[in-house]
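Section 5.1 Outputs to date
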Amino acid sequence: MKLITTEKMRGLDEAAVRECGISSLDLMEKAGRVVARVVRSIIRDGGLKSGVLLLAGSGNNGGDAFVAARHLLATGVRARVILLADPTKVKGDARENLERLRRESPGALSVARTIGELMECASGLDDVDVIVDGVLGTGLKGDVRGHYAEAIFFMNGSNRKIVSIDIPSGLDGDSGEVHGVCVDAIATVTMGLPKLGLVVGEGPDHAGRVHVADIGIPGELVEDVSSDRELLVADDLYSLFVHRRRVSHKGNFGHVLIIAGSVGMTGAAALAAMGALRAGAGLVTVGIPSGLNDILEVKLTEAMTVPLPQTDEVTLSLEAAGRIKSVEAKFDSVVLGPGLSTHPETVRLVKELALSLVVPKVIDADGLNAFAGDEAALSKIRGPAVLTPHPGEMGRLIRKGVAGVQGDRVGAAVDLAGRFGDTVVLKGAATVIANPAEVFINSTGNPGMASGGMGDVLAGMIGTYLAQGMNTLDAAKSGVFIHGAAGDLAALQIGEAGLIASDLLDRIPLVARRLHARDI
C-alpha cells in the first residue's frame, strides 16, 4: 500500500468528492466505522472490559471520533466522548456527526474547554480501557500548545491504551517530527492511504501499529498517485495464504534446514527451528556442532537434529560443508547463521555454503557477520536469498555504522539490496523490506520485541515461506508482518515489558489463521 504525503492525501479526498461524486460525509462515516472496528479488536484481543473514552477536537478528526463513538455504542461498548472545543467551532461534516451523536446518545457527550473541565469529565477512568485520540489531524502547524497539549499529556499519563485517528496528535504527517508534544499510541487508524510520517523519523515511536482504513476512494485515483515506498499491511498478504487441502501431508509444506548454534547460543538454533515450525513447515532439521547435539535434542521435540563436524571451540568446522552440500537436495530452504559465532573456520564455512548452495536461503546474524569487510562477495551468493540484518550488522556490511543506518533506514536497505541483488530485511522499528525494485515498510511490531531471540524466530519463519515456494520478497514480507503481528498480540495480552521471543511462537498460527479469514 502506497505511503504518501499529507498533501497528496488531501488531493485524493478532494478528487473523490469532485470527480467521482462521493460524499465527504460518507468518507467520514466509513473512517469512523473502521476506527470502531479496530478499537473492538483491541478490546477483544486484550481481554479488556470494553470501556472507551474518545477525545475529539473541532476538526475532521473529531468528526471521525463522533462516528466511531456511535458505532461503538451500537455494538454494546461503553463509550463516551469529550469534545475539547466550543461546539460552535465544529463545522461541516464534523458538525453534522456531532449533532447526530447528540440526538442518538445525548448522555455520551461532554464538553471540556479547559484541563480542569477535562479532568472532571474524565473522572472515573476505572471502566475505561481504551482512549481514542481524535484531537488533531494532519494539518498541524507549529508546536501543540495550551489546552490540546494538556489533553495529550493527560492521555499519555492515563496508563490506558491509546488509538489515534489518522495520525497521533502532535506528529508531523510527512516528516515524523514531533511538534512539542505527541500522543503515544499503541495503534493508529490512518485514512485512505498511510502517511509517510507514521513510519519515518519519530513516527514509529508514537504511531504504534498502523491500520489503514478503506474509506471508499476509487482505485483508479489511488493508482494515479506516485510513491516510491509502500506500507506493508495485511491486504498485501491475503493472496499468499490459502487453505490447506485435506489430503495434504508434511512433504507439501517444505523441509527447512537450519545451520545454527555454538557454545552459549543453542537457544538461537532452537528459536529459529520453532519459528519455522510455527510458521507451518512440514519438516525442520537443525544442523548443529556435534558437541551440542544432545542439548538440541532436549530443547527440540518436533524438529530433527543432525550433528556436524566441529572445531575445537565447538563451532561448525569447514568439514561440515561437504556433508551439507551432499544432502542439499533433501531440503527446500536453508537458514544460515543464527548463533554460529565468528570463529575463523566457521566464517569460511558460511561463505562456502552461501556461495555454493542453490536452494533458497535466509542469511542471518553470524551468517551476515561472515561477510563484514567482504561485502563484494554478497553479489556472488547463489540462488534466491534473503538477508536479515539488524542495524549493527547492516552498518558493518555497508560501512556506515549504526548511526548512519538509523539516520536513513530506507536508504541503507536499498543500498544493500542493490549491492546484493536480492531481498534485504532491515530489522528494527518499522522494519524495511527492500529489493532492487521495491521498498516496503512494515506496519506491525512493538517495543516489547526489542529482546534477544526475536530475529532467530523471524529467520525461521522466512525460511518456511521460502520452503513453501514463495519468492524472496513475498517470503520476507510474510515473515516480517506475521512476526510483528504475533508480537503485537502478545503485547496486548501480557504487556510489552518482559516480552520474550518464545511468547511469539504460539501466536504465529493465530495470526496466520486471521490472515486466512481476512480478519486482521
